[in-house]
Amino acid sequence: MAGNFYCCPDPVSGRRICADALPEQCKGRAYRVIDGAGNLIREVGPPLTPEQKALQEQEAKKKKELETQQREQRRKDMALLETYGSTLDIDKARARAEEEVAYSMRQAESRIADAQVRRTRLEQEAEFYKHKSLPPELAKGLKDVEAEITAQRGLLASKQQDLEAVRIRFVEEKKRYIEITTGGGNLMHPAMGGPRPQPGK
Fold first, then answer.
1. Minimal CA–CA distance to 180: which of 88, 61, 104, 74?
2. Each residue of 111-157: pLDDT tens digit?
3. Does a structural domain hold residue 147?
4. Does any domain span residue 56?
5. Domain match, 177 and 108 both
6. Residues 123 and 156 reside in one and the same domain
7. Is the dihedral angle over the CA atoms 135, 138, 141, 142 positive or is it negative?
8. For 10-64, what is each residue's pLDDT tens digit?
9. Helix, strand, coil % in the chain, rounded to nearest 5
10. Which domain range does residue 31 map to?
């Protein structure tokens, strides 16, 4: 830049050296840029060490991850406010979701009970063949009913996990909703210019 000077201490003598282009002695070291009147324009630090570069990259990565998390949280918060008008709405949605899962669980339990009845009947029939091979149709029936009971028990266990997940999800959503609508969530509702009021808990 015309009219500017690059200055740094001489690494040998310690005296300040300046030039209108970066002096050889200043390369790879900290230096200052001053104008013709001697005013400091900017300071340039020494090149970063490999350790400093790695730390800088790590901090930049953490900052980027944090910004991504914050954007995602804002998106979730807005979706929460658009979905529910009050905590009562959340409670109703939770009840519906729990009932859907509970209905599936009752169906699985009913199928297990029916299969167990069929298995008992087939086992009683198999008693007549204690000392001889079971007829193929009877053997297949026993195998199929055991497979159905196993499958329905697996489904029931899965639905029990789903029910717990539903409860946890709605507890967290309700907690976050209250934080946002009472001003603790740091989210301003765009349609209202401020935290959305809490109609009821």
1. 74
2. 999 999 999 999 999 998 888 899 999 999 999 999 999 999 999 99
3. yes
4. yes
5. yes
6. yes
7. negative
8. 888 889 999 999 998 888 889 999 998 889 999 998 888 888 889 989 999 999 9
9. 65, 10, 25
10. 5-44
Would the pLDDT of 96 be above 90? yes
Q: Does residue 142 sit in the same domain as residue 60?
A: no
pLDDT band at 184 (very low <50, low <70, confident <90, very high): low
Tally the domains of the chain: 3
Beta pairing, strands 31-34 & 16-19: unpaired
Cβ(109)–Cβ(156) below 8 Å:
yes
Q: Are residues 153 and 163 in the same domain?
A: yes
Residues 172, 124 within the same domain: yes
Supply the pTM of this predicted model.
0.59
Q: In whole angstroms, give the CA distance from residue 67 to residue 55.
A: 18
Q: 187 lies in a domain?
A: no
DSSP code per residue over 154-197: HHHHHHHHHHHHHHHHHHHHHHHHHHHHTTTT---BTTTTBPPP
Domain match, 129 and 67 both? no
Size of the chain, expressed as the number of residues it contains: 201
Burial of 55-80, coded b for 16+ CB within 10 Å and e otherwise, reads eeeeeeeeeeeeeeeeeeeeeebeeb
Do 36 and 120 lie in one domain? The reply is no
Beta pairing partners, 34: 5, 40
Are residues 26 and 109 both part of a single domain? no
Task: Specify the amino acid at residue 77.
Answer: D
Return the H-helix or E-strand segment holding 87.
Answer: helix 87-126
